[in-house]
Design brief:
Helix content: 25-40%
Structural class: alpha+beta
Number of strands: 15
Radius of gyration: 24 Å
Strand order of the largest sheet: 12-7-6-15
Largest sheet: 4 strands, mixed
């Protein structure tokens, strides 16, 4: 991945039409997710400018619902200020390791190489089917659906009959689009991938494989319901609320009261949360008769590592189907109610990283600072309250020591 392909690679193209017997997912995916994905090459004869275009809005001319859903997804923001400021301080090889998933098309990498003035950059302008802003649009439609100007998609379902092939020569149906292995290209690092405390930084597919959901659900079942291009996860309150069940209780031990939050991972088909970036805070407080709140403790659900990714601080993630208890002591004189507020911080690790980076602002190129500041503002604004529970402090179940 240490080089960017030129715009002028020539590809041998075949006519696009649904195959009567699609190949098995493993074979298809080994070719579909090549490292790197080749440039599209020469436009087939008879293609219009719309047929050849890699612009998501061009796809939206016919696939309006999918384009509209994609626009609101994190995939559409995969090249945001959090990545752009880092590209200012990375070399090309390191950048391409990030772009492997954030902007995987050869055409996207080529555009960024020209914009960043990297050594291995195309000397020629992009072809007409490559829009100037393609590199900044993240995981675009073509990243999953276009190879060598051929279109690929899922096998039509019972309620989605195959329509006549009119644009871009039709498409080739592939069962792999409904297989969790399709998502694993980005959501599962190889065994040789980066680790902290022996744990892969991205291990979601492997977590799913050993989950209770693996027998009946795929990644697409939850994150692309009814084939919607939403990919909602922990940034979305509704998705997060469906992943966990939370109970609050007060226990008595040796004359002391203990606040206990029991959290069950009932809906996520992987760890909750799955990797190091998000955190979920459990904030305990005592509420007196006037309604005033006094904080009594905070516990964190998540995998916390240092910003250099070298040392693990804690790992309190909850495996799929698992349960965890989080406890704090209640002050002896506290009266009124016990309150638990569950707060989701989808970008907690980035918030720490960006904050520390801004403290070293003098080390970075001036062009890196505006996107760095914007990235920090965005991760902070993504925080939200998921739920709030209360219990009378007088009610304490006695627990044997």
């Amino acid at each position: 991945m240490g080089r960017v392909l030129g715009f002028f690679v020539i590809a041998v193209l075949a006519a696009c039409s649904p195959k009567p017997t699609p190949e098995d997912p493993e074979t298809f995916l080994s070719r579909h997710w090549q490292e790197p994905i080749p440039a599209q090459g020469e436009v087939p004869a008879g293609f219009t400018a719309l047929d050849a275009s890699l612009a998501p809005e061009s796809c939206g001319q016919c696939h309006a619902a999918q384009w509209r859903e994609w626009q609101g997804s994190l995939h559409a923001r995969a090249v945001g200020p959090g990545l752009l400021w880092q590209l200012q301080v990375m070399d090309q090889a390191a950048a391409n390791r990030c772009l492997r998933c954030h902007a995987p098309l050869a055409e996207q990498k080529a555009l960024l190489a020209q914009q960043m003035n990297w050594p291995a950059r195309p000397a020629t302008a992009p072809p007409s089917y490559v829009p100037a802003n393609l590199a900044h649009e993240g995981l675009v439609c073509a990243a999953c659906h276009v190879r060598g100007h051929r279109r690929f998609g899922p096998v039509p379902g019972e309620n989605r009959p195959l329509k006549g092939s009119t644009g871009h020569g039709g498409f080739e149906a592939a069962p792999a689009f409904s297989d969790s292995r399709f998502c694993a290209h980005c959501h599962q690092f190889p065994e040789s991938g980066p680790r902290t405390a022996g744990k892969l930084h991205e291990d979601t597919y492997a977590q799913w494989k050993v989950s209770p959901q693996a027998a009946t659900q795929t990644c697409q079942s939850c994150h692309m319901p009814n084939r919607q291009h939403l990919w909602r996860g922990i940034h979305d309150a509704g998705t997060t609320r469906g992943a966990i069940d939370v109970a609050l209780a007060i226990e008595s031990r040796q004359g002391k009261r203990v606040a206990v939050a029991t959290v069950r991972n009932v809906g996520a088909g992987h760890h909750f949360p799955t990797y190091m970036v998000p955190k979920v805070e459990l904030r305990f407080a005592a509420i007196d008769g006037s309604g005033a709140a006094a904080a009594i403790g905070t516990r964190v659900i998540g995998w916390t590592v240092d910003t250099d990714l070298k040392h693990e601080i804690a790992d309190t993630r909850i495996p799929a189907g698992g349960t965890a208890r989080f406890e704090v002591d209640v002050p002896a004189g506290a009266q009124g109610e016990l309150e638990l507020v569950v707060v989701v911080k989808p970008g907690e690790h980035y918030e720490r990283t960006f904050t520390q980076s801004l403290q070293r602002a003098g080390q970075w190129p001036a062009a890196a600072l505006p996107p760095l500041r914007e990235a920090l503002a965005r991760v902070r604004s993504a925080e939200y309250e998921l739920l709030r529970l209360r219990r009378p402090l007088a009610a304490a179940a006695r627990i044997a020591n």
